[in-house]
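The passage that follows is intended for readers who have already worked through the single-chain material. We present the inputs for a multi-component assembly, then the predicted structure in tokenized form, and finally a short commentary. You are encouraged to pause after the input and sketch how you expect the pieces to fit together before reading on.
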Amino acid sequence: MAGFFEGINKVPFEGPSSVNPMAFRHYNPDEIVMGKRMEDHLRFAVAYWHSFAWEGGDPFGGQTFERPWYPQDDMGRAKMKADVAFEMFDILNAPFFCWHDADIRPDQGNFADNLSTLDEITDYIGEKMQTSGTKLLWGTANMFSHRRWMSGASTNPDPDVFAFAAATVKSCMDATHKLGGENYVLWGGREGYETLLNTNLGQELDHMGRFLNMVVEYKHKIGFKGAILVEPKPQEPSKHQYDYDAATCIGFLRKYGLENEVKLNLEQGHAILAGHSFEHEIAVAVADDMLGSIDMNRNDYQSGWDTDQFPNNVPEVALAYYHILKSGGLKTGGTNFDAKVRRQSIDPQDLIASHIGGMDVCARGLKAAAAMIEDGGLEAALDTRYAGWQTDAAKDILNSDLESIANIVLDQNINPIPVSGRQEILENYVNRFV
Ligand code: XLS
Ligand code: NI
Ligand code: NI
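Having made your guess, compare it with the prediction:
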């Protein structure tokens, strides 16, 4: 639908001194950061659900946005939505996008109809991708909105729902594969429980583990080369979700033999809901070589909800990219803006400006992270702090046993002297860069 963004041009890079609200001041795709183009580091993706499918409701009120492709129950309007989406990708020069099945096709209720509309719309989107520079970062299945999923998808007590979920994920993996997607994501919004009074927790976890094994088996069967990713979140919509945080997911993947097959898609707001920082979640994943991709956003720190706002805190983003860069960067993953404009931001321009801001904040964070790595101050501080472990005597401790160690402590009268953790000095150091 040409014309939705009428009067809005392709967003130029104008540099930090620009006062043009519709220009990038920091995101310069071709700028080289640590030997690599900024665009190739950040691998930005637009999330179809927030930008094109969300209608602006909140728990107290419904739709605020007026888009010509609403109501979203018709294939003609789904195609119009895709036209506008690709128009926006072009304006932003977005390298990637992401979708749920329910975002791109109308939901007609039964599986056969959903399958044929998904086929039709992904053919249509595939044609658009031929002439567009925007690729698919990942696809996923929405197995949380429709009432059939109210008691879970793979963890549903009803085997018919498990079967419907398996068929749905198969169709979404096929569609992702057809469109050259680089990853496939599973977020289990209803894979959890409301009350233990009606829940067999152990059985549900076993079903979820079996389901994910089927996903991996199918990936190999169809020759999908992308990564399979699970996305942790502690709660909302379920009161308790099984994929609580990175550490919980890693334990789950090990238990079901999936640790070499599945990685994590980590989201800033979900880290906060779990009582962590984003960099904590990233560091946990990196320590186990489990980092796949990131969903970039922020929550409202006062409301305690998953408000999915666009990021605007450079120091937080810088620390996230610091850990990503230290681990070697995003590989098949990217930076997906799992973020929506506020419900009062009803203009088409708001959709563009929000992404400009998010991309600029991430670019600033990336540059700050790279500068800290190149300066080496934090790494040097770590080396100093752990230097004691470099001696042979220290390494022997790890190969020893409690009794022998106790004897050494007695013989040598080992009496540790506390050393400053220098937290404030390190925080001041980070402030030089952000
Ligand atoms: C919701 C999730 C969702 C996933 C994809 O909180 O972040 O948007 O990223 O299903
Ligand atoms: Ni997400
Ligand atoms: Ni979220």
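Commentary: The chain has a mean pLDDT of 97. The domain at 32-375 is CATH 3.20.20.150 (TIM Barrel). How closely did your sketch match?
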